[in-house]
Amino acid sequence: MPDQGGSRQNITFPSGGRQAHGYLARPPQGVGPGLVVVQEWWGLTPYLADVADRFAAEGFTALAPDLFGDATTHDSAEGARLKRELPVEQAVRDLGGAVDLLLGLDGVVGDAVGVVGFCMGGGFALLLAAAEGDRVTAAVPFYGLPPDPDFEYRGLTAHVLGHYGEEDQYIPMAAVDEAAIRIGEATDVRPEFHFYPAGHAFMNEENVLGTYDPLQAAIAWKRTMAFLWGHLG
Predict the structure, then answer these.
(1) What are the backbone dihedrals phi and psi of residue 141, each rounded to the nearest 5 degrees, phi first?
(2) Cβ-contact 228, 60 below 8 angstroms
(3) Of 1, 90, 123, 212, which one has the greatest count of Cβ atoms within 10 A?
(4) What is the mean pLDDT of the chain?
(5) Which of 43, 92, 36 is nearest to 66 (CA)?
(6) In sequence order, which residues have a C-beta less than 8 Å from that of residue 137 and are 6 or more positions away?
(7) Which of 159, 34, 21, 6 is nearest to 97 (CA)?
(8) pLDDT tier at 4 (50, 70, 90 boundaries)?
(9) What is the helix (H) or strand (E) element at residue 125, kind and residue range?
(10) How far lies 210's CA from each of 48, 78, 177, 197, in Å?
(11) Predicted TM-score (pTM) above 0.85
């Protein structure tokens, strides 16, 4: 069953003729690059909002759209159901609305944003980058790939940094290698994919799957900061 209390929302924005919701975190200095933060299949949980806050503390204007419409869970079967019932086109549209919002906000610098996604959100980070072209200049998927293994990645121009676990029971290393080949064949992008001696969701401090690895998480975070500032700074 979904968790009680709903998701962490503090902003509403237009998306494809409807209203989408999300959590916006601004940097302390009030000015910084825009960054879309895409949720796991747990929903827009307090933890995911804390991740957005963490990016904001590093100097980004971070927006985490709520793709599940206020539903959150800590049950894997329920998370899988919510993911399965989420229309991919609607999710990409809502993420595109988040890009629109960020690029129109005072204090967001530059004419492109970055996107970081976790688990399910890692796949959507790549889908968003392909859909938005030059409006997304940096994409960072954490242990996630598009739901369609034959996705062709046409339209993707962003620099790509990926983080994947060698012991991931959901995404085999061969699938990541295949995605790298597909990106290279369809675009001029050469993705930078890193593999860690860890399982799925090794960044998630809530440790719902029992796979949180603080050492590998710290390494991935450091790489992500250097990458984002290198392409958005």
Answers:
(1) -85, 130
(2) yes
(3) 123
(4) 94
(5) 43
(6) 110, 112, 113, 114, 157, 158, 159, 231, 232
(7) 21
(8) very low
(9) helix 120-132
(10) 17, 17, 25, 14
(11) yes
Q: What six digits make up the tokens of 208? A: 């719902």
Question: By three-state DSSP, how is residue 141 classified?
Answer: strand
| Residue 1: predicted pLDDT | 38
Which residues lie closer than 8 Å to 231 by C-beta, 6 or more apart?
114, 137, 138, 159
The full DSSP string for 172-229 is -HHHHHHHHHHHHHHSS---EEEEESS-TTTT-TT-TTS---HHHHHHHHHHHHHHHH
Cα 72 from Cα 166, distance rounded (Å): 28
Name which of 211, 46, 73 is nearest 142 in CA terms: 211
Which DSSP category does 156 fall into?
A: -
**Contact, 141 vs 162, CB < 8 A?**
yes
Half-sphere exposure (CA, 13 Å, Cβ side) for 102? 33
pLDDT at 126 over 50: yes
Taking the C-alpha atoms of residue 115 and residue 5, their distance in angstroms, rounded to an integer, is 27
> What would the mean pLDDT of 128-150 be, rounded to a whole number?
97
- Three-state DSSP class for residue 120: helix
Residue 199 CB partners (closer than 8 Å, separation 6+): 165, 167, 168, 169, 209, 211, 213
Least confident residue range of 13-17, 107-111, 211-215, 221-225: 13-17
What secondary structure does DSSP assign to 4-73, as a single string? Answer: TT-----EEEEETTEEEEEEEE--TTS-EEEEEEE--TT-S-HHHHHHHHHHHHTT-EEEEE-TTTT---
Task: Give the pLDDT of residue 6.
Answer: 60
**CA R_g for the chain:** 16
